[in-house]
Every structure is written in C-alpha cells, then in structure tokens.
Design goal:
Elements (H helix, E strand, L loop, with lengths): L1 H8 L1 H13 L3 H15 L11 H16 L3 E7 L8 H19 L7 E9 L2 E9 L5 E3 L2 E3 L10 H11 L4 E7 L2 E9 L2
C-alpha cells in the first residue's frame, strides 16, 4: 500500500515522462516504463478480461486495490471490446465510481464488498455499482453531500460523473437504503 501511495504521489511526473516518450516516438521505452510502474504496484491479477483495454485496466487496478484492503469484489460484465466513448470519459466514470465505492466499503466492518455490473445493448450502456456503507448520507437540492472533512476537495467525483454522462444524454439514479449504496448510470452511445 505504501508503494501504491508513492506511485500515486508521483503520478503527474510519471505521466509527463510517458507522454514525452510517446510524443518522441519511443514506443518501446514507453511500454517498458509503464510495465515498470505496473510491476511496482503489483497489478498482476486480471479481474476483468472483456477485451476493452481501458475498462479492463481500470477495473483490474481498482479491484486489486479493494482486495488489498480486504474488500470482496464482484464483477458482472457484458460489453463489447469496443465502445463509442472516449477513454477519458470512461476513466472519469469508472474511476470515480469505484473510488467512491471502495472508500465507503472500506469503512464497513462486516463483509465489505464492491459490486460492479456493466451491460451494453443496442447503443445503451448500463453501469451499476453497489457497496455497503455506514453512517448517514445527507442530500441537499438533489445532490449528495460529502462526509469527508475536506469539503473543498471531496464530493467532486459524483459531480464529474454527472457532467460526463450528460454528454451522452445519460441518467444517474442513486439509491441508499438498508446500508446499501447503489448507483446506476445509463448512457446512450452511438
């Protein structure tokens, strides 16, 4: 975990170096650099192998993080290897969704888990994440309020998801009852 935190801390520098290598056409060096980072953080287990590289890599990285924290993971994935959504948008959606779910589940003592379901059918992408939580959830004007002490820098994740799915005329439904937090996203992709 300490290694992962160190990598995260240095992520901007790593990304700048990789970007420079790619821009100068040094593909082999870029891949070696990325492999070195991945070896350092221990991304070896494949939870997701849909063939969609971006989705698989986000899920594999986040689920590994969850498992290291003692959180059980569950994945139900029925998507093609190509979706008409930019990698950037998919990273914003899945990254924030899983970060929030893992953070909430990590505070639960009894049987913490994160469950992710993704389905694609006839131009529609459904993404659903479920996790247990403890404490109370506060809502104001239809927005969930963060329970983090650092109000200025937290609570941004759901807003980022909301902004991103609006590009796809998407909807976001949130249910939190019986200490189970469930978020469902529906995006319309061409």
């Amino acid at each position: 975990l300490q290694t992962t935190n160190a990598i995260r801390h240095d992520l901007k520098n790593h990304m700048f170096s990789i970007k420079t290598l790619v821009e100068t056409g040094e593909t082999k060096e870029s891949l070696e650099y990325i492999s070195e980072i991945m070896d350092d953080i221990g991304t070896r287990k494949d939870y997701s192998a849909s063939g969609n590289t971006v989705i698989d890599s986000i899920i594999n990285f986040k689920f590994q993080e969850a498992e290291h924290m003692g959180i059980k993971t569950n994945l139900d994935l029925k998507i093609p290897d190509k979706l008409n959504i930019p990698s950037f948008d998919m990273t914003v959606i899945l990254g924030n969704l899983l970060d929030n779910a893992i953070k909430a589940a990590s505070k639960v003592d009894q049987s913490p888990f994160v469950s992710l379901r993704m389905r694609y059918d006839k131009g529609r992408l459904l993404v659903q994440a479920d996790n247990p939580y403890i404490g109370e959830i506060n809502e104001e004007n239809g927005n969930l309020l963060t329970t983090d002490k650092d109000k200025e820098n937290h609570g941004i994740g759901l807003q980022s998801i909301k902004r991103t799915i609006q590009k796809y005329n998407g909807t976001m439904d949130i249910d939190y009852s019986n200490n189970l937090f469930s978020i469902s996203l529906l995006l319309y992709l061409d």
